[in-house]
Design a protein that fits this description.
The protein is an alpha+beta fold and 89 residues long. 39% of the residues lie in helices and 28% in strands. Keywords: Disulfide bond, Electron transport, Redox-active center, Transport.
Length: 89
């Protein structure tokens, strides 16, 4: 099963800059267990609207069945890894 994490961000968003190193840690830890897709809401408003993103940063965890989890605001590594694990099972 394919697991994706969509990271909705903007260059001007301070909390988004806080989220980035956390996501990098998750990628280092889990490797190929998921695919990280960064979505710049200023460039891809249609995608942000499709997922009804209203606040930044927003992380959406999805698998082949659809959205499994959604996090709004800076999210800790443990919460992200748990959601990825759940989405992959």
């Amino acid at each position: 099963m394919t697991v994706r994490v969509l990271d909705f961000y903007a260059d001007w968003c301070g909390p988004c800059k806080t989220q980035d190193p956390i996501l990098e840690e998750v990628q280092e830890e889990l490797g190929d267990a998921f695919e990280l897709q960064k979505v710049d809401v200023d460039q891809e408003q249609d995608v942000a609207n499709q997922y009804q993103v209203r606040s930044l940063p927003t992380l959406i965890v999805e698998n082949d069945d659809g959205v499994v989890d959604r996090f709004v605001g800076v999210t800790q590594k443990e919460d992200i890894t748990a959601a990825i694990s759940e989405a992959g099972s």
